[in-house]
Write a structure and sequence with these properties.
The complex is a heterodimer. By secondary structure, chain A is α+β, with helices and mostly antiparallel strands. Chain A contains ten helices and twelve strands. Chain B has a single domain, classed as Beta Barrel (Lipocalin). The chains are: A alpha+beta, B mainly beta.
Chain lengths: 348, 214
């Protein structure tokens, strides 16, 4: 009675001056020290005081540590149901938690194990981000259960309807389920926010706990290869030997011949033209006639044509190769999946 | 205006011209003979001489410009009884550019002298020339025409030079796949003294053989 009164007074002081003297973490430390000093009433009071604070006031590890010592204190205070409830809370917070058998005596670890056997909860671990590139790639979804119990693992569409059931069955300790980013019919998921939901069932199939993790799915397309540069004109050989117009030769020759005849009067008006110039005029005229007779049509150059064709075919092969790669890349679906924070719902 | 033309030609020569830049480095040499006919006229009368001259013509193509050098030397004898025979010497240096495959522009000095026992008449002409080629047969036979005008002129005869102009028309015959060619041309020019004191014209029919290599 006297001890209870002291504990009550201490708890009252602790509750009255939380901000002034002690933070929740300090209260947890003091509570644990009181437990180690076998002062279970004080320990319970301080730990309860620390744990009633809002969730952000304590880290998850401090909260679980405080809960474990609170459960142990309650057990030593002959409050077994309360202790079991506290241990259940620990397991729901962290289904993978195992009590340290070197720290706690068998009666405590025994009760914890009993509670674990009846508490149905699962921890779900999903990579924060993963890209599914090749067929066979999948998101690994690791499940860690408190005890053997049936679970459903499903993926919900953005509108909340079921896209795919990944697993239905029991989980004893751990299980890895894989999702390849596709619906049951193999269709890749479109971009959007999907939901991964893992539900734990009771023996009567009642849903006792759900863990929901948002999955942001984005389709990623690979860049296509650039089209090969066209064959530069500098590499293309002329395919025809240029022709020559006979009329042009004739005209040019005769104009030059005529110029030869009239130049003296144009350039040196008063001088008499040299008769020798007619030799030049005659030569030009003759060349003009020969040029006219030698008119030639454009002729194909087979060697150049073959070289150009080989060049074009090489380019076409390169273009076909690029096109094939690009078609494959366009058809290829890559999924970038980002997982959000888990949201736990207790009960159905 | 007279100074602007050579400057323009020099600018054209110095301008990087893609077509000209495609031309190979090239060295060509023409040698030949020229039949000359000299004629002068003045208010007091005139004289007429004719003769032959040996000539040489070098062309060095240095992309994008070329250098043309020519030299001729000969002797003129009187066609009329009163004229005095004289020696004829002529030289020219032209910087050339080819703004189009068929067109060559030239600019440079042209010196001509008539050396007679009584004295030597020397002309110095700064000329601008335009030369055009027209293929006649397979690109091996070419007809060409060339016009020129002096933009500055001087002569050591009173009352001085008042300008000159000239033209040349010819035919170049090149042997296929050969560095050898022949040229037959006719040229005529007229130089004037100031105040119309005298005009001198020189006509020449030129026959040369050339050789060129890259």
């Amino acid at each position: 009675m006297r001890r209870a009164g002291l504990a009550l007074a201490f708890a009252a002081c602790a509750l009255a001056l939380p901000a002034r003297a002690q933070t929740p973490a300090e209260l947890v430390s003091h509570g644990i020290r009181a437990y180690q000093n076998l002062d279970y009433d004080s320990a319970s009071a301080m730990l309860q005081a620390a744990l009633v604070r809002p969730g952000a006031a304590l880290t998850d590890s401090d909260r679980i540590r405080g809960l474990v010592y609170l459960g142990a204190s309650q057990l030593y205070r002959d409050r077994r149901d309360s202790a079991a409830a506290v241990f259940g809370r620990v397991l729901r917070l962290d289904p993978r938690y195992r009590i340290d058998q070197l720290v706690f005596p068998p009666e405590i670890t025994g009760l914890f194990q009993q509670v674990r056997l009846v508490t149905r909860a699962v921890t779900v671990i999903v990579p924060a981000q993963i890209e599914l590139r090749a067929p066979g790639d999948a998101v690994p979804i690791a499940l860690y259960a408190t005890t053997l119990h049936p679970v459903d693992v499903i993926v919900l569409r953005p509108d909340g309807t079921r896209l795919r059931t990944l697993y239905q069955g029991g989980v004893g300790d751990s299980l890895v389920v894989r999702w390849d980013g596709r619906a049951a019919d193999g269709t890749p998921a479109d971009s959007g926010r999907y939901g991964l939901v893992v539900t734990s069932h009771a023996a009567d199939s009642r849903v006792v706990r759900s863990v929901a993790i948002p999955l942001d799915v984005a389709r990623v397309r690979r860049d296509t290869l650039p089209w090969p540069a066209p064959v530069p004109d500098s590499l293309v050989l002329p395919e025809q030997a240029p022709g020559r117009s006979g009329m042009r030769s004739l005209g040019a020759g005769f104009v030059a011949a005529l110029a030869t005849v009239v130049l003296p009067s144009i350039v040196a008006g008063r001088a008499s033209g040299a008769g020798d110039r007619f030799v030049v005029a005659g030569g030009l005229s003759l060349a003009a006639v020969l040029g006219f007779r030698g008119e030639r049509h454009p002729q194909p150059i087979p060697g150049n044509i073959a070289a150009n064709r080989a060049l074009q075919e090489a380019w076409q092969r390169q273009a076909d190769s690029v096109q094939a790669v690009n078609v494959a890349r366009v058809a290829e679906v890559r999924l970038l999946i980002r997982a959000g924070a888990a949201h736990v719902t207790e009960g159905p | 205006m007279k100074r602007a033309l050579p400057l323009l030609l020099l600018a054209l020569a110095a301008r990087p011209v893609p077509l000209a830049a495609q031309l190979p480095r090239y060295l060509g040499l023409d040698v030949g003979l020229s039949r000359l006919q000299f004629q002068s006229s003045s208010p007091s009368g005139g004289e007429k001489l004719s003769g032959f001259a040996a000539l040489g013509h070098w062309r060095i193509v240095l992309r994008p410009v070329s250098l043309d050098l020519s030299y001729a030397q000969g002797r003129l004898a009187a066609d009329t009884g009163s004229a005095v025979a004289r020696s004829f010497v002529e030289g020219a240096v032209f910087l050339t550019a080819r703004p189009a495959p068929w067109l060559v522009l030239k600019a440079g000095p042209h010196v001509r002298a008539y050396a007679a026992p009584g004295g030597t008449e020397r002309w110095i002409l700064w000329e601008g020339r335009a030369h055009a080629d027209a293929p006649l047969l397979d690109g091996e036979w070419l007809a060409y025409g060339e016009l020129w005008v002096s933009v500055a002129s001087s002569v050591n005869v009173v009352p001085g030079a008042s300008g000159a102009r000239g033209a040349e028309v010819g035919l170049t015959l090149k042997l296929p796949q050969s560095p050898v060619w022949g040229r037959l041309a006719y040229a005529v020019d007229q130089a004037n003294l100031k105040t119309g004191a005298r005009t001198e014209s020189l006509q020449s029919v030129v026959l040369t053989a050339g050789f060129g290599g890259r």
